[in-house]
Amino acid sequence: MFGMTKGRWVMVAVLGLALCSPASTTESERKVLSKVKPAYPALAREINISGTVKIEAVITANGTVKAVRPLGGHPLLILSATDALRKWRYAPGPETTVIVEFQFSRGD
């Protein structure tokens, strides 16, 4: 189409998506007003599962969590982490995407 190869179309599409994506920030760049600590799942505790869960969250202008998407972590820990993050409240500001990491260890 229009003299462009399939590879160039893919590259143009990827660049277009990257330019349209919301800016990604870390947790510290948008002030957290209240946090809820995730519960350590009983089954994970029983079988000695620990580790880090990484979650991407979209924060609305009024500071509530609009959407969450797990980026990594043990499946037994992800649900607890996403449930807790949905209850966090941030300072008002433009809609933002943040990355939050939760650490789960046997001592929790």
Brief rundown of the structure:
The protein is α+β, with helices and mostly antiparallel strands.
Can you characterise this structure?
Helices cover 29% and strands 31% of the residues. Strands 1-6-3-4 form a four-stranded mixed beta sheet, with helices on one face. By secondary structure, it is an alpha+beta fold. A hairpin with a 5-residue loop joins strand 3 and strand 4.
Break the fold down into its secondary structure elements and pairings.
Layout (H helix, E strand, L loop, with lengths): L5 H15 L3 E3 L5 E3 L7 H5 L4 E9 L5 E8 L2 H11 L3 E2 L5 E9 L4
Parallel strand pairs: 1-6
Antiparallel strand pairs: 2-5, 3-4, 3-6
What is the end-to-end distance? 58 Å
The helix/strand class is alpha+beta
Task: Please work out how many helical segments DSSP would assign.
Answer: 3
Strand order of the largest sheet: 1-6-3-4
Largest sheet features? 4 strands, mixed
Rg from alpha-carbon coordinates: 18 Å
- Mean pLDDT comes to 80
Strand content: 25-35%
Molecular shape: elongated
Order of helices and strands: HEEHEEHEE
- The tally of beta strands, per DSSP, is 6
pLDDT below 50 for ≥5 consecutive residues: which ranges? Answer: 6-28
Helix coverage percent: 25-40%
